[in-house]
Amino acid sequence: MARESFQHVIDSHTTLFGVIGDPIRHSKSPIMMNRAFCETGVNGVYTAFHITDQTLPAFIAGVRAMNIRGVNVTIPHKLQVMELLDHIDEGAAALGAVNTVVNDNGILTGYNTDGIGYVRSLKEEAIASLAGKRIVVIGAGGAARGIIYALLQEQPAQITVVNRTVDKAEQLAAALGGYAKNGAAVLDARSTDSLQALCGEAELVINTTSVGMFPNVDASPLDASWLQPGAVASDLIYNPLQTKFLLDAKQRGCITHGGLGMFINQGAYAFEYWTGKPAPVAAMREIVLASLQA
Ligand code: ATR
Which of 170, 168, 179 is nearest to 95 (CA)? Predict the structure, then answer.
């Protein structure tokens, strides 16, 4: 469909939104969010701002001054922005990272929609319920933290964090272990040596590391023969859309889940927090996919 079809009139009532980061010019959020506004008839406009550590406080003052309704926050500001806001949602506080700011007439609240966006995408695309499942998470960085917090709300039987540097996995497990809903899940940490044995028992294996990301597309965090056929293999990477890990897992007979859905759904939650309307997820996915394949 022609791009013009999705343009709407920007007038004196238009509400402002944006994404901040350093760097930021690679971001797909503006095309995704503007499409969402057009699709739902929201009179909003969303742009990308290149904000540095030095200009972050002035930017947040500008959000208040101009009544910018919503901001997405990406690297490197997810932590530093927290001290400039009025309220931090419980999930974002637990993670120590904010990726979405909602401005209610000058009162700024920080949320984190990365983990819940991931879980929504996983449940829609690959596995309807995570209750009672055994899950392996490879990697112990910021991305792993976000998704583990959200996975713990889903009452899995067990989540094991496997990391090259086992200390980091142990720290993560210690920090988030208390957030299991109803105390149902066990969260523990292992070194990469245990990965093969753990994969043999897992219903869901998630790669949160950068192994396999463009341009290193021939790398994979594990040997797919370790996976149980029928298990779900999930990768947070969306460039490429199908990593070597996922291609190999598919051959092995696994259900695969790529990283694009997490990006779309973290944006969908942000859209819903800002507008109170259901996000037009299919349209958002369509325009991001087209842009990635252009
Ligand atoms: P993010 O915030 O995106 O999660 P990060 O904090 O840099 O990024 O974390 C990257 C994760 O990928 C870490 O768990 C890292 O392992 P280490 O803690 O041992 O550094 C993991 N990782 C990155 N490159 C890797 C590689 N080549 N092999 C194995 N693990 C790797």
Answer: 179
Q: What is the side-by-side strand order in the sheet with 158-163?
A: 186-191, 158-163, 134-138, 204-207, 232-235, 255-257
Ligand 1: distance of its center to the CA of 190 in Å? 15
In which element (H, E) is residue 16 found? strand 15-21
Q: Is it true that the peptide bond before 278 is cis, omega within 30 degrees of 0?
A: no
Decide: pTM greater than 0.85: yes
Cis bond upstream, residue 215 (ω within 30): yes
- Reply yes or no on whether 78 is catalytic: yes
The position carrying tokens 């904000």 is: 51
Return the ligand 1 atom nearest residue 145 CA. Answer: 4
pLDDT < 70: residue spans in the chain: 1-7, 183-184
CA 238, 239, 243, 245 dihedral sign is negative
Residues within a 6 A CB radius of ligand 1? 139-144, 163-165, 168, 208-211
| pLDDT computed for residue 185 by the predictor | 73
Would you state the pLDDT for residue 90? 94
Given this model, what pLDDT does residue 8 score? 76
pLDDT given at position 264: 98
Residue whose CA lies nearest to ligand 1 atom number 3: 143
Cα–Cα dist 140/189, whole Å: 9
